Amino acid sequence: MLTVHHLQRGQSERIVWLCEELNIPYELKLYPRDPRTFMSPPELQALHPSKSAPIVQDGGITLAESGAIFEYILTKYGDGKLSVSPSADNYADYLYFLHFANGTLQPALLRARMATKMGLPPDDIGARLALNGMKKSLKLLNDRLSASQWLAGDEFTAADIMVVFSLTTMRLFFPYSLQEYQGILGFLQRVNKRDAYRSAIAKSDPGFQPPMSAEAPAQ
Ligand SMILES: N[C@@H](CCC(=O)N[C@@H](CS)C(=O)NCC(=O)O)C(=O)O
Fold first, then answer.
1. Ligand 1 pocket, 65 CB below 6 A?
2. Range of the domain at 44
3. Index of the ligand 1 atom closest to the CA of residue 69
């Protein structure tokens, strides 16, 4: 059986959510963050050279990296669900947004967080690049979600699961506002109505309500 190793308040919530949406059996192992450093505990780090979550195990396989884990689970256990067939008109949209989350949005947010934490002045070239990258990514997402119910089109797919962490739980670590992004806020409301999402959060971070409102969460 698949084992999902989840570092609480972290990106691995996506893997739990994916399993819940697919309704596949899995064992969930929870790891609280070190309260001082927010890093993963040694027992989780020992599982894979990446030393970071998500990590899944399946028989003799141990796999890290959200995107690789998504492909693994969708291909092996997905039975065609939550993905888009290469013959469909929206296949390229599906692929683009599946990779956009970790390829563009999450790195842009991390760069902006770094610039903010370093206290760089707004006219610093590094700060400008970082904040522009973040705005550009959020605008792209907002435009798409203002025109389309879900990222790949009319149907909910794995691409929607991949992006949500960066717009919700990530804001605990980098509290940014979504006030200007009504398309994203509407999308988050649709996400929050999904039983599989709520059940994934309840199992992976009991009692936690990921920030979904426009305001930047208080730190
Ligand atoms: N690109 C990786 C990023 C993994 C990652 O940075 N995970 C964070 C959790 S959000 C982590 O484990 N941080 C704690 C640590 O590195 O000790 C993925 O998507 O799997």
1. yes
2. 2-77
3. 20
Asked whether 105 lines ligand 1 (CB < 6 A), one says no
Q: Say yes or no: CB of residue 39 within 6 Å of ligand 1.
A: yes
Domain check: are 124 and 183 in the same one? yes
Q: Would you give per-residue pLDDT tens digits along the chain (219 residues)?
A: 999 999 999 999 999 999 999 999 999 999 999 988 889 999 999 999 999 999 999 999 999 999 999 999 999 999 999 999 999 999 999 999 999 999 999 999 999 999 999 998 878 999 999 999 999 999 999 999 999 999 999 999 999 999 999 999 999 999 999 999 999 999 999 999 999 999 999 999 999 999 999 999 987
Question: What phi and psi, each to the nearest 5 degrees, are found at residue 64?
Answer: -120, 180
pLDDT at 193: 98
Is the CB of residue 86 less than 8 Å from the CB of residue 92? no
Let me know: does 39 contact 63? Beta carbons within 8 Å. no
| Best mutation site among 52, 66, 204 for ligand 1 pocket (most ligand atoms within 8 Å of CB) | 52
| Ligand 1 touching residue 33 (CB < 6 A) | no
CA of 213 to the centre of ligand 1 (A): 24
Shared domain check, 52 and 27? yes
Please give the Cα distance from 50 to 198 (Å, whole number): 28
Q: Is 44 in the pocket of ligand 1 (CB under 6 A)?
A: no
Report the candidate in 161, 56, 55, 48 with the shortest Cα–Cα distance to residue 100.
161
SS (H, E, C) 200-214: HHHHHCCCCCCCCCC
Structurally, the chain folds into a number of domains equal to 2
